[in-house]
Specification:
- By secondary structure, this protein is an alpha+beta fold.
- The chain has a domain of about 240 residues: Metallo-dependent phosphatases (Purple Acid Phosphatase, chain A, domain 2, 4-Layer Sandwich), CATH 3.60.21.
- Helices cover about 15% and strands about 25% of the residues.
- The protein is built from 6 helices and 26 strands.
- It starts with a helix and ends in a 12-residue tail after the last strand.
- The N terminus is likely disordered.
- The protein binds fe (ii) ion.
């Protein structure tokens, strides 16, 4: 009897806790887990030392180098001399195992206020074998550094593939926790990065050495799997007060993307196909009004999406369209007004944004009825609409965004003010498993998770909680 009473009491407590978490007043969840808002200054530069040796190559990172995944762009910096500006590479398996080829690099460099960059090398390699491990080596003699990556499988409708998702990373102790947590997750094969990289611009004169330290920081992941880049506001580096008038100068010198292969005229917006996903990257900080290059490109691009080839349509941008945090509230609104109807018509599966330093996942909602005079200004449930994820919770110098609007709006399914990363594990043309991992948990724990159903092949409402 004693045992039964205590069991019943435990069950009631668990039930009460569960009900407290899901809430009674609305469908969404505001997690009770709120991270402390203590300061998070950048780690000292000495925490990101260059590799040993004279002119040793550093800041090695890779991204997709073509439209369909057989290409890779390998980038690195040499601090003092232009050489070596080539990269030997060879397959670790398959019929061309150990057959060594060499790719030349294009060199760029730039000046920013009182800073001069090292030599920034970008080597584009194309026509690799699909689904194959490759080695590559940068540097010569005692400075030679060996890395590896795996190409994706051939693009196709039922190709399983797992993406990592991160945003607003910076270079604090929290950033390091997020990145280490991500690296310890063995499943993610390619990073979808939602913008705001180094936060160099939070330092006096946009201290561009912070771009170098950030490049060294992320190398432990970005040299081994592609990071797909999106530009955020911290990539602008537009600073008339120090006579720096060229937007995105450090970012565009350092992080090259294959924009021409999707007929884009700017590295700030482009698309790739990888495994079973068609990924569109947009720029929240470039013109997107009617007739602008980005508007014209996106309109064309959406007509090229072939769901028979790539069932999953994913969009990356920086400033979220649906955000119920008081930080950056409605900053993405004008872009939403410009493009939301296209996303609904195209049945975009998921939109990934950063900018707000917290985590939030939306319901499938749209707000395209509103025409100023009809009064229909509230978002409605819409099974043709994307799920919007805000994942600006990398853990940068600016700290946590811990002020959510109250009450939680109906479009918001789950939100939490702490740091972490997410993964999107595409299983086939209908199902993908999405998980968000807060830094304080082990990778086996998902603080938020959802089976996503493909909008083209299986447009069924997901069970949100
Ligand atoms: Fe931002």
């Amino acid at each position: 009897m004693q045992f039964n009473m205590s069991t019943a009491s435990c069950l009631l407590t668990v039930l009460f806790l569960l009900l407290s978490v899901v809430g009674f007043c609305h469908g969404g969840v505001t997690s009770s887990y709120v991270r402390k808002a203590e300061g998070s200054s950048d780690l000292p530069k000495e925490a990101f030392p260059p590799p040993p040796g004279f002119n040793a190559p550093e800041q090695v990172h890779i991204t997709q180098g073509d439209r369909g995944g057989r290409g890779v762009i390998i980038s690195w910096v040499t601090p003092l001399m232009r050489h070596p500006n080539f990269v030997p590479y060879w397959a670790a398996e398959g019929k061309l195992k150990n057959y060594k080829l060499t790719a030349p690099a294009k060199i760029t460099s730039y000046r920013y206020f009182n800073y001069t960059s090292g030599y920034i090398h970008h080597a584009t390699i194309k026509r690799l074998e699909y689904d194959t491990k490759y080695f590559y080596e940068i540097g010569i003699g005692v400075c030679a550094r060996l890395f590896h990556f795996r190409t994706p499988p051939k693009v196709g409708p039922d190709v399983p593939y797992t993406f990592g998702i991160m945003g607003d990373l910076g270079q604090t102790i929290n950033s390091n926790e997020t990145l280490e947590h991500y690296i310890s997750n063995p499943t993610a094969q390619t990073m979808l990065f939602a913008g705001d990289l180094s936060y160099a611009d939070d330092h006096p004169y946009h201290d561009n050495e912070r771009w170098d330290t950030w490049g060294r920081f992320i190398e432990k992941s970005a040299a081994y799997q592609p990071w797909i880049w999106t530009a955020g506001n911290h990539e602008l580096d537009f600073a008339p007060e120090i006579q720096e008038y060229v937007p995105f100068k450090p970012y565009m010198n350092r992080y090259h993307v294959p924009y021409r292969s999707s007929q884009s005229t700017s590295p700030l917006w482009y698309s790739i196909k990888r495994a079973s996903a068609h990924i569109i990257v947009l720029s929240s900080y470039s013109a997107y009004g009617k007739y602008t290059p980005q508007y014209t490109w996106l309109k064309q691009e959406l007509t090229k999406v072939n769901r028979a080839e790539t069932p999953w349509l994913i969009v990356l941008l920086h400033s979220p369209w649906y955000n119920s945090n008081n930080y950056h509230f409605m900053e993405g609104e004008s872009m939403r007004v410009a493009f939301e109807s296209w996303f609904v018509e195209s049945k975009v599966d998921i939109v990934l944004a950063g900018h707000v330093h917290a985590y939030e996942r939306s319901e499938r909602i749209s707000n395209v009825r509103y025409n100023i005079t009809d009064g229909l200004s509230t978002p409605i449930k819409d099974q043709s609409a994307p799920i919007y994820i805000t994942i600006g919770d990398g853990g940068n110098i600016e700290g946590i965004a811990n002020s959510f609007t109250d009450p939680q709006p109906s479009y918001s399914a789950f939100r939490e003010a702490s740091f972490g990363h997410a993964t999107l594990a595409i299983k086939n043309r209908t199902h993908a498993h999405y998980t968000w991992h807060r830094n304080q948990d082990s990778n086996a724990v998902a603080a938020d998770s959802l089976w996503l159903y493909n909008r083209h092949y299986y447009p069924v409402e997901e069970l949100s909680h």
